[in-house]
Amino acid sequence: MNTVARIQGLLTRNVGLKLLSLVTAVVLFFAVRGAEDAQRAVFVEVVAQTPAEDSGHMLVSELPAKVRLTLRGSSSQLSSIRTEEMDPVEITLVDTSLSYYYFEPAGFDLPAGVRVEAIAPSTVPLVWAERGQRTLPIEVRLVGEPREGYSLFGEPTAEPGEVTVTGPESEVAAMVAVETDPIQLGAYGEGGHTEVVRLRRAPDHVRYTSRESVRARFQITAEVSDRSFAGLSVLQVGGQSRLTIRPPVITAVVRGTPDQVDAMGSDMIVPYIDVAGVTPGVGAEPVQVQLQELPEGVQLVRVEPPQVFVTSAARPGRAEPSRRPASSER
Question: What is the spatial distance between Cα 67 and Cα 118, in angstroms, rounded to a whole number?
Fold first, then answer.
């Protein structure tokens, strides 16, 4: 019993002093540990200043988006670094005679007491090219086929129709046109269509200086087909008789949907000429061939030949004027 009491007395005697000693020991432990030398890797973004466009040169080699820094310092210092708060490293690349760029530790903004042990990559090769510029036509890229029964009418157009590109002289010189992103024809019905569409991604190191998108215009119409009707007799209107028509038959070419023209017969196409203005006894006169009204939706493409020659005999009882030789004076 006396032993237990003695132990309890030892534990409870000078409790405050004992707690203070414990706290001090813990603080000293973490302070010593925080001062220990440590190592950490972080990534820093790279921002480059390149030559102005009027310099006539441009950088065509790739620059790293980030560099990897191996840092050394105390544990407390390294743990306090927030990579998202670190300023990017700025490099100046305006001297086009340089073949390499070397990253220097002094170029990075780091807390005091933290040093850079390694940089990866530490060196960047630099490749330069002469800058070129051209204005090129824009081609609207249509892909696929229109819906069944429809077809593309005419050629698509872009508004504006040109774009200025700049980049390495050799690459710019090889370009002949700039395409748009593809437009699927199957998604559109009959009528005129206008779409704002982006220009196709430019080749590496080439960029568009004036715009990135254009208005593409195109038209889709119902599918049509042509059909030829030959040997059609030419009728005459206008009241005269005793007329000779050469040639007496013509060929008509009509256009419509496949169903419309397939359903047509030659009796539905009636060519005629108006002979009211033909003068009897004059000789062969050209008269334009016309067609009676065609079925709705069908249009005339052409008539072959477009005109015929009409000859009218002289009217009965009307004598031809005689021609006397000129009298000579004696």
Answer: 10
> Alpha helices of the chain — where are they, by DSSP H?
2-12, 15-34, 75-79, 169-174, 258-262
Q: Is residue 329 part of a domain?
A: no
For the record, the structure tokens of 44 come out as 């820093």
Measured between alpha carbons, how far is 208 from 128 in angstroms, rounded to an integer? 20
Domain identity same for 218 and 283: no
Q: What is the pTM of this model?
A: 0.54
Q: What span, in angstroms and rounded, lies between the C-alpha atoms of 41 and 69?
A: 6
For residue 17, being part of any structural domain is answered with no
- The residue among 128, 215, 139 whose CA lies nearest residue 177 is 139
Does a structural domain hold residue 321?
no
What digits encode the pLDDT tens for the residues 57-82?
999 999 999 999 999 999 888 988 88
Tell which residue, 149, 176, 178, 148, has the closest CA to residue 163: 178
Question: Are the C-beta atoms of residues 126 and 98 closer than 8 Å to each other?
Answer: yes
Interval 159-206: pLDDT, tens: 999 999 999 999 999 999 999 999 999 999 989 999 999 999 998 899
Q: Please list, in sequence order, all residues whose beta carbon lies within 8 angstroms of the beta carbon of residue 272, skipping any fewer than 6 positions away.
A: 234, 235, 236, 237, 289, 290, 291, 292
**Helix, strand or coil, per DSSP, at residue 199:** strand
Q: What is the DSSP string of 147-203?
A: PTTEEEEEEEEEES-EEEEEEEHHHHHH---EEBPPEEGGG--SEEEEEEEEBPPPP
Helix (H) or strand (E) holding 214: strand 213-222
**Residue 324: which pLDDT band, with cuts at 50, 70 and 90?**
very low
Enclosing domain of residue 207: 130-222
SS3 state at 266:
helix
